[in-house]
User: What shape does this take?
Amino acid sequence: MDTVHSPGETELLPADIEAIRREFPVLQQEFYGKPLTYLDNAATTQKPQVVIDRLRRYYEQENANVHRAVYSLGELSSKAFEDSRIIAQKFLNAASEKEIIFTSGTTDAINLVAATFGRANLGPGDEVIISAMEHHSNIVPWQIVCEEKGARLKVIPIDDRGDLILEEYEKLLSPRTKLVAVVYISNSLGTINPVKKVIELAHAHGVPVLLDGAQAVSHLPVDVQELDCDFFALSGHKVFGPTGIGVLYGKEALLEAMPPYRGGGDMILSVTFEKTTYNDLPFKFEAGTPNIAGAIGLGAALDYVMSLGFEKIAAHERALLDYATEQLDAIDGLRIIGTAREKAGVISFVLDSAHPHDVGTILDHEGVAIRTGHHCTQPVMERFCVPATSRASFSIYNTFEDFDRLVQGIRKVQKVFG
Amino acid sequence: MDELRDLYQEIILDHNKNPKNFHVMEDATHKSDGHNPLCGDRLTVYLHVDGDRITDVSFQGSGCAISKASASVMTTALKGKTVAEARELFHKFQDMLTREDAAIPDLDEFGQLAAFAGVREFPVRVKCATLSWHTTMAALDDENKIVSTE
Assistant: This one.
């Protein structure tokens, strides 16, 4: 635990991390008289002051419904809302802001694609390919639509390290495949999937690909055009933004061809009892008053991440991952679940002597917040023959000391259950 | 730290390590499965009921220390009780875990069940301590379904 870490060139210095930490009010708190060590970033990230201030400014100075007001206040809110869409477009490097649909989160975005693209394109005997490391939100929507349409779900297996078995994936692709939906970074194993390869192989069969980017967007730069993915789903709250807002990116031609998701205001051009004409993209998929404040807060969050720069974020997180893996590996009776070749931000582990739930309670009393359970990936737990894991997931504001406190806490658990 | 010590008492740690009546019961008259989907705890409770008396209790499964120890202590507490007494004990146990104003029963009256009084300070862990009890009540009700804490 006394390992001295010397930062590399692109890495954030301790003083930089201190400055970043000061921007997150939640991190200034103590629990049980100990500083909060927040290691549950895969569940949700904390919010920097700029995001909190932006939400406050919206409600104090700009609140009005969007898109229809003729008064100045309404222009302010509409502009801020649409500006955020452009920030999201820039963040993902989408070709057009028409391709950025605001949703309530990743789950909503995937459900949108399942309910529209899925319903329109799946028939009896057709197949959707997902992977064995999907979050329940990228399993259940496909099960629902497959059941409705008589289609089948095919699952890419993973190996003992937690890597996709690409040879098996290639065997699954066939003329029956109508969509591939896979996670970019696994929330329970930390695996960074070779999504570019996954997409290339699918496209060779003319099959579009949806990426669940919920975990990815806070760890690595995403360029949807370079990836050439067809859909990309993200949640604002996992990238320092508010809860209840997310983005679905979709290629314009695909979105144009898809039927609408929910009916209501804002998604129409004209309504009579005989016929309704749907609005243009992206509004066709945004029925009702949107989460205006959330979208604007998300814009502030994405600006914040871009200002930090992914090169620095990645270097810092890589150093944290190496340090944490080494420290945890050195603990007798601890086994890391998920040792993929490329990993980001997540370390799942089990202890011989204690159940994850007991680990979580004891660590909480050390001020250390980790997640315990199945992390909404029950098939992954089954694959690794564990009922649950403890998971430490980190972000830009975490420090080497955070992992020292985690390790001390684990030693305390082992003492109690010795 | 004191709260933690109250939670993980020696009695609980012992029962977690060496649970009593931890086996399948071949001639059970009642049986039920319990599941806490949040933490993955799963257990099966077996009962042998003769008339209105519980003559034998056992359990199997995996879970956290609190759920395992609670199941273990429960099996020792219920053996020889009538079904009505078992139900009453369950309500007292539940009160002890959830009601602020509930008096903490002394060891004479409550035996080792009193060791779980500390769980009251950990609301998210109450489900762990009561899973085996809910499962037992379902078995007695002859509900042949999986009991879930959610």
Observations:
- The interface with chain A takes residues 1, 3-4, 7-8, 13, 16, 37-42, 62-66, 68, 122, 125, 128 of chain B (CB under 8 Å).
- The helical segments of chain B are 2-7, 10-17, 65-78, 83-98, 107-110, 126-140.
